[in-house]
Amino acid sequence: MNDLMMQKEGFTGRCQKVLQVAKPLFHEKPDWVTFFRETLGVKGAARAVFPSQEEYVLFEQSAEFAEIQKMVASLRTRKAGGSKNEATRVITVRLPESLHEALKAEASDHNTSMNKLCISKLLQVLVENEKAAKNPPVPRPSTLPSNPVPKPTPSPLATQPTPTTPSPNFRSTYTPPTNPGQPFRFGQ
What we know:
Strand content: under 5%
Radius of gyration: 24 Å
Number of helices: 8
Number of domains: 2
């Protein structure tokens, strides 16, 4: 597709063009890998219509992209094998043990494998980060008085920890020191 033709179509028309490729393919119920490859993959419809990174980032913020992402998510929930037409690749990711344990717990909570959980997160995170960068949160007007009264600072001698209730989705791997008289040192 040449540049002049793409400019004439307009951004919304080009978003619709990608969606017009995605909808019939989705109704054929392919495996999610095939659908992703044909619509959002490197040689897919979206990259053909939005060849520059700037244009593609704008496309990722469109309603059409969100609809295609829902289609990908829907296809991923099906109990079908992987794509027979595409080989899989393996990557090694080094991450802290605490993050590994958190992912393991989250996968268990959702009754899924860590592999599926990580793929889901990879498919969503970049889009969410780019949207947040383009649309920073609007500051809300403060309800505090213009000269707030400072809160008293606790005495350094008052070292009693405040009990907190962790979120039901949070699983901590922290184990407090067994001897309360000795400070905890990381790396022990």
